[in-house]
UniProtKB/TrEMBL annotation:
Domain of life of the organism encoding this protein: Bacteria
Name of the protein: EAL domain-containing protein
Domain EAL: start-end pairs: 192-435
Pfam families: EAL (PF00563)
SUPFAM superfamilies reported in the protein's UniProt record: EAL domain-like
Record organism: Sutcliffiella horikoshii
Upper lineage: Bacteria, Bacillati, Bacillota, Bacilli, Bacillales
Amino acid sequence: MGRSWNRIKRYYKKNGSHLVKILLPSKYLRYYPPIYVLRNPIEQRVTHTLKKGYQVAVISFYFPDLENIISKIGRRKYIACREVIKAQLRKVIGQTFTEEEIVCLHEQYSDGISLLLRVDARFHSTTELEDKLTSVKTVIEGRKYKQLDNQHLCVQSGYVFLESGKYTLSECMLKAHVQAMAMAEKQDKLQYQQLKFQINQIIAFKDITLLAQPIMDVSKGGIKAWELLTRGPKGSLMENPLQLFSIAKQTNQLFMLELLILEKAFQLIYQCKMKEAIFINFTPTTLNEVELIEKMLVLLKKYPEIIPQNIAIEVTEQDSIDGLKNFERNIIALRELGFQIAVDDTGAGYASFHTINRIMPDIIKIDRSVIQDIDKNTVKEKMLQGLLLIANETGSLVVAEGIERPEEVQILSKHKVDMAQGYFYARPKLLQPIT
């Protein structure tokens, strides 16, 4: 073996750039691996996150005043200051987001600083993300920087979700960074205008698809209702609903998008002759719009077959309703038209009891974070019992979300939960019109 091993080493020394497939004793593999690969640690983290089933939000921070500041203090002094800004940004981000959420904070590209976040689409909302980014902005802008002659620093942020599949991961990350930076800089960038054009095209050509997920009767079985879920144009950047809604919100097109979803829902109910109740998600932002009821009346006149009593408007509980002047007035008007009101994601995000107390919903939807592994967690079971007591006091029906295991169904049956939905029963699917 000694002579053979010496020959192998001489061959590697002479032809080290070639791939040589040979059988070596395991103790030598550490020093002479058959393949040498230079890996990007950022891409490794992103790949690891995507493989676990999460999405990755790419957030870019842009400092619009920096050019003026540089002209005043000089570029050399600015370079030292930039390290201070980065350190402060890193500190604030660490205080705002959990360690598990942060994939990395980096300057892989020349303009701006990017934060990559792990996002679970089932738990997170774009408003929750924006609220945290506002907190970061408030802290950064509230501080005076000695290195900037005690000036305050303005910071803007924009975000998109990583689109993978069509390109290499490095190309996808660069594209996402450019788009997020365009969102941060708004009108100053062509990319922003292109994204705004794309969302306007989707709305103009009504290019969205609605999938339906059944909501089951826990005690009797069978489908009690359907929740309608939105997807953007197939194969496009905005097929992903998180991407679609985040870009619509940042380009001020969220209200128009949600009106389109409502009209598409009315069409689907009519075409499929749906008799069960229908759940449609609405953001508090849209429910606060002055024109909402007027637009709703126009759609009801256009689709006279629609029975408002069979439709539940879901208000996502992760989004704050505080400070919305028209919100409660619109909720009252929707009820007068016959619509039911549901509070979505109860048990996650903002204070559930405050939201329920203000809305007094007809239906309370319990978030998956409460339901997941509830059979193994007595604290979660107590939380469920508490929410059921509140529902009993308000006269609300209860829907448990995110059911994935039969053991979870057993706990729901034990506590006489009204309805449930999740992958255990069925995944969202495309309904076919009845001819």
